[in-house]
Amino acid sequence: MKSPTLTTSDREATLRRAIIGAIPEYYAWPDTEQERYRLSVPKEQDFLIRKALLSSLFGIDVDTEEGLNEVLKGFDDEQYLLLNSTLLPFQGIGENDFFLNEWFADGVTLLGFETLGDYAREDHEYQEQARKAEDPGCDNDIRPFQGDLHPCWARLNIDGEFNYATLVSLARHLSDTLDETGAEQIKTLIPHEYVEGKNHGKREQGGTVWDFRVDAGGMELHLEELRHRYYAYLRARHACLLERFDVEATQKVYIQRETRGLEPHIEFVFSDRSALDAVRFRHFFSDCQRIAGDCAELAVVTEQEQQAAAEFLQAQYQDIQRNFDPSVVPLRKKRKIVLTDGALEDLS
């Protein structure tokens, strides 16, 4: 099963034939009606279009949704790239065919949000409600929106070229970076690995128990304490950065391009809520270009935060070595992870 190389015009023609086959009247509708329809396309028509694309692009014929999904499980990055780039104009809106690859509630589409800020505010509300539900003992007040945006996936065309994208706030970007680099430093300070626990692989509640324990050569409790302190540091640092960038309101977006294998990818890092509010989904890339910041600035603040985090970890490690008593074990909630069979297949 090999995917062909197609020009932009070839992909457009292939998609047009698929749409006409599934929705003969589609191109007779006004643009606004086409847009509303494709953002809430019925499952039957969506399947017919994807079915036609699999046949035209890859010579694969399927008869059911289940069969289509099985085929997609076997796709490599090159095949997904061709399928996604061909399908994008039927999924996205505006001058970039912008498609936000995130979950929306029933009846809600991207057309309900003019700007990225509008979407981020609703996502913030959802995250806050989820926080309250997970921890009933937490502060009942909804924290004010300060421009935070969890990483979300998108696809868009720029000058006819398909791109995958990640959208994220600057504070969240820095926190995620510190999480990754901190984990590396912690492993250097206290070498460790994960080994299968006694319950790993057991069947329970219609799924499989995922049980791994950490082996740190007798330093397991020291490692847990260091991780706990660093987690608290990350939470506090994220809140501090969010407040700082909200007050500064520099209204910038840092645009970082990279290639991941065959996949063209862009990360859009938004400084604060004023930047989120300045970017309209229908004019996504041109709005981002208008407020684009120098990525050298991002590199500087990232290095500063990484250095501060490294110093924190080193100081905490030394304190734990001198003063931590592993015989005094704090009470912390333990979790059992049971993976559904479908999730386990995805990890294999």
Q: Can you describe what's shown?
A:
The protein has 348 residues and is an alpha+beta fold. The chain has two domains: 1-91, no CATH class; 152-347, no CATH class. Helix content is 50%, strand content 14%. The chain has twelve helices and ten strands. It has helices at 8-22, 31-38, 43-58, 65-73, 77-87, 116-134, 170-189, 220-248, 273-277, 284-290, 295-323, 341-347; strands at residues 99-100, 152-158, 161-169, 193-196, 203-204, 207-209, 212-215, 253-260, 263-270, 338-340. The strands form three sheets. The chain has a five-stranded mixed sheet with strand order 1-2-3-9-8. β2 and β3 (161-169) form a beta hairpin. α1 (8-22) crosses α3 and α3 crosses α5. It starts with 7 loop residues before the first helix and ends with a helix. The model has no long low-confidence stretch (mean pLDDT 89).
